[in-house]
Amino acid sequence: MELRHLRYFVAVAETLHFGQAAKSLNVSQPPLSKQIADLETEVGVSLFHRTKRHVELTKAGREFYEYAKQILNMAEHALTRAQHAARGETGELVIAFTGATIYDLQAIIRKFSAAYPHVEVVLRRLVTSDQVPALMNRSVSIGHLIPPVQSDELRFLPIRKERIMVALPEHHPLADGVTPIKVASLAHETFILTPRNAGMSYYDAMMSCCRRGGFIPRVELEVDHLESIVGFVSIGMGISLVPESLSQFKVQGVVYQPLEDALPAFETALAWREDNDSPIVHTFIAFAKEVLRPILLG
């Protein structure tokens, strides 16, 4: 029994007319009649009562029709899912991110999920140094990380050159939210930063910014996640240097202030294995390029 037999049977069952069914199938009536006869022989029962003027389903035919429809629908669904999978439109996509890159990534994923609702995006928070082995052992498909990364087996799509901003308690004397602050004016402040092992590139960029201002920061507290840092700033435990994109993370009691003399601190990028032939990965990268085109061109 082939799907063709079921399609022919369903067409006759729904029209109860061999001529009309043959026309809808774009076949002539004699081959259609033969296919139905062959199907009845294989099933071992009559599926239709036939007279010269009338065709109707037998009891067995009515039962067979319900399952034949289900089988055809399932076959069509399987075909569609296979085509979606081949185009990278269905399946699971595991993406790693660091705390310093999540806000750009959120915008991409939100739009990607709307465009490809059958792709399940799984997020894993990993520092850049942990993303590389995860990409290499394929436990992660795409990384959103902070270069530089030394690997000939990875490809990169630069996303953004992040500038550093200052996160200040809202009642801090410098906190007007507008006036750029000189880095040197922060020399006597108490800082809250992430430890270096939570993100070397980000940590080194913060320290380099302070050195350009002529001082080494007095770090009162080290916290693994940037969002936690902002929480501690909000209760007045200190100030922090944060990526510009983190200013999207609004917390009551915190003001994000630009720096007057801070150069772009670090770059963020998407990374994936060069030999990764997953259609989903390539679909996501192509989609990200389109979403980020204004940033990339800028």
UniProtKB/TrEMBL annotation:
Protein name per UniProt: HTH lysR-type domain-containing protein
Which Gene3D superfamilies does this chain map to? Answer: Periplasmic binding protein-like II, Winged helix-like DNA-binding domain superfamily/Winged helix DNA-binding domain
Keyword Transcription assigned to the entry: answer is: yes
What family does the Swiss-Prot or TrEMBL record give for this protein? Belongs to the LysR transcriptional regulatory family.
**PROSITE patterns linked to this entry:** HTH_LYSR (PS50931)
Which GO molecular function, any one, fits this protein according to its record? DNA-binding transcription factor activity
Residue ranges annotated for the HTH lysR-type domain, each copy included: 1-58
GO CC terms: protein-DNA complex
What keywords are annotated for this sequence in UniProt? DNA-binding, Transcription, Transcription regulation
Q: Which PANTHER family does the UniProt record give?
A: HCA OPERON TRANSCRIPTIONAL ACTIVATOR HCAR, TRANSCRIPTIONAL DUAL REGULATOR HCAR-RELATED
The UniProt entry, under SUPFAM superfamilies, shows: Periplasmic binding protein-like II, Winged helix' DNA-binding domain
Recorded hits in InterPro entries, A to Z, give: LysR_HTH_N (IPR000847), LysR_subst-bd (IPR005119), WH-like_DNA-bd_sf (IPR036388), WH_DNA-bd_sf (IPR036390)
Q: Where are the transmembrane segments?
A: none
Q: Which organism is it from?
A: Alicyclobacillus ferrooxydans
